[in-house]
Design brief:
With about 250 residues, the protein is an alpha/beta fold. It is about 25% helix and about 20% strand.
């Protein structure tokens, strides 16, 4: 969800509109939604299995409302971030993810069953906001990564504009989340570790939506970035995270 003058984001920031399907690059049809309900048998089965792989310690989950539309804005160090967030809260969550992630060993095939909306990287950016708007309009909890790309140096980088714009436009709260230790389980430049590991997820009090004016959105982003750094026990960076989780400065 980046502006035209911002670097391209890592990972899909867009996709086909909610309720439709997109055809993948290899001819497969990609559903835009597949999140199971809170009492879905597959969710009840998957969660304990994934908890044995990703041993999540959750703090402040009471800040995530049990129902109604909300944006869950998180730090971003790993493809496993969304799994950690899905395990850290009680309610189902939606998150956008690169279709290629579904082919990752062990965890990949399970991602859509946890609520991932598979999208085609590169071709999906134009419709990302439509996906998020539709999901929020249906009252869902939607995970977003304001940095756009995974951080290779573990700092919280400058936030892109999309989250603030959606929050302002739809008047939805934004709950900040910081994840610590996730990069050891699924590194930016590596495969997921079969033995998993311990991860800490911390949530902060919700941010009310900003006024829908540039100055208010910029102030919102600065405050949110600072909170993400505090929650993830990270330092702040003044630069955008490199696209694709690539080398810093590229």
């Amino acid at each position: 969800m980046s502006r035209p003058d911002e670097p391209a984001a890592d990972g899909p920031e867009g996709g086909a509109a909610h309720g439709r399907a997109a055809e993948g690059g290899d001819g497969e049809v990609v559903p835009t939604t597949s999140v199971p309900g809170p009492r879905s048998p597959r969710r009840l089965v998957l969660r304990p299995i994934l908890r044995s792989w990703l041993r999540v310690r959750s703090h402040g989950a009471e800040h995530v409302p049990e129902e109604g539309p909300v944006l869950l804005a998180s730090s971003h160090r790993s493809h496993a971030d969304s799994v950690a967030l899905a395990l850290a809260v009680r309610r189902p969550v939606h998150f956008l993810g690169d279709l290629k992630l579904t082919r990752a060993p062990i965890i990949g095939p399970q991602l859509p069953k946890l609520g991932m909306v598979p999208l085609r990287r590169g071709e999906a950016d134009a419709a990302a906001l439509d996906v998020v708007r539709a999901l929020l309009g249906d009252g869902h909890c939607v995970v977003v990564y304001p940095e756009g790309s995974r951080s290779r140096d573990s700092r919280v980088h400058r936030l892109r504009s999309g989250v603030a714009r959606v929050a302002a436009e739809l008047e939805v709260d934004v709950v900040p989340a910081g994840i610590e230790g996730i990069e050891r389980v699924w590194p930016v430049d590596g495969r997921p570790r079969p033995w998993g590991g311990a991860v800490t997820v911390r949530f902060g009090p919700a941010f009310p939506p900003p006024e829908d004016i540039p100055r208010a959105r910029r102030s919102f982003n600065l405050q949110l970035q600072a909170q993400l750094a505090e929650l993830s026990r990270s330092e702040l960076a003044t630069t955008f995270s490199a696209a694709g989780g690539g080398e810093v400065g590229q």
